[in-house]
User: Fold asparaginase from Paenibacillus elgii.
Amino acid sequence: MKKILLLSTGGTIASVPGENGLAPKMSADELLHYLPEQNRSYQVETKIIMTIDSTNMQPEYWVTIAKAVYEHYDQYDGFVITHGTDTMAYTSAALSYMLQNLGKPVVITGSQVPIMYKRTDAKKNIIDAIRFACEPVGGVYVVFDGRVIIGTRAVKMRTKSYDAFESINHPYIAYIEESITYHHPVRTVRSKEPRLDCSLCPDVFLLKLLPGTKPELFDYLKGLYKGIVIETFGSGGLPFQERNLIPKINELIDAGIAVALTTQCLEEGGDLGLYEVGRKVNQDLIINSRDMNTEAIVPKFMWALGKTTDLTEVKKIMETVIAGDTTP
Ligand SMILES: NC(=O)C[C@H](N)C(=O)O
Assistant:
């Protein structure tokens, strides 16, 4: 019989209505009590890690979650983490970097509707997550609405519908119905020991450009952050007429701040070399995020900057494919 550890962190799934609206209150044990009794081929044990709305998630809490999995790694066959949906994709990506060489599944799930409500999606999602946590695969996964997504590729697309998450720039791994049907192969490392690598520098900023972004903004950011992710237009376009951002970005790099460029387009990634507007920045040190999702770029950047402040090294880590985060 498979032994699974269910770790709860809060979210809508564990929320109850109160005077100020929905707030997470339930423990992992209470969540489990809502599941129908069935002839289970698994045994689930529980542990509360935290009880927060995932809006309040912090990089330091990702470390707490990673450590909880790592500390119990040998005692269980798989792990399920219940989590709020709003920042679930950031957490799943963060865990994908911090938990290396996984030979067992770490599955994150949540729900759009609290488990105590009649029309909840929580029961299905938890049962699906437990079922996938029994599979002989390693790595971090998001299981939601019957779909399995690798941890670095999930994006929350919808605020209300049950199919909140999509796998962006990567195929779905599997679909969970009566049985689990795989659609994409997963590589499981069994020969190596799992490794906890949770060096994190939280000083990362994310900037979405708009027509008219003020270059002076970067002077302010320079003193506050060690890494800046810029969501550019289209394939990597940065404005260089009127409010010219290029000198400011090069100044940041000269000051030792790492700059990663990505695109505001959700699908197909950026290509900095394509247009004149993308080629004008310091090509040697600017980080090209290609088709990584922002939810993965941010924790990866924190993780890379937690190891080194050498911009060449940071660029190397960021541009290395890890846990399927970029299309090679
Ligand atoms: N559906 C949810 O879980 C949303 C909730 N605000 C959270 O992220 O914790």
Observations:
- The chain has two domains: 2-196, 204-318.
- Residues 11-12, 53-55, 84-86, 110, 112 surround asparagine (CB under 6 Å).
- The chain has a mean pLDDT of 95.
- The two ends are 38 Å apart (CA to CA).
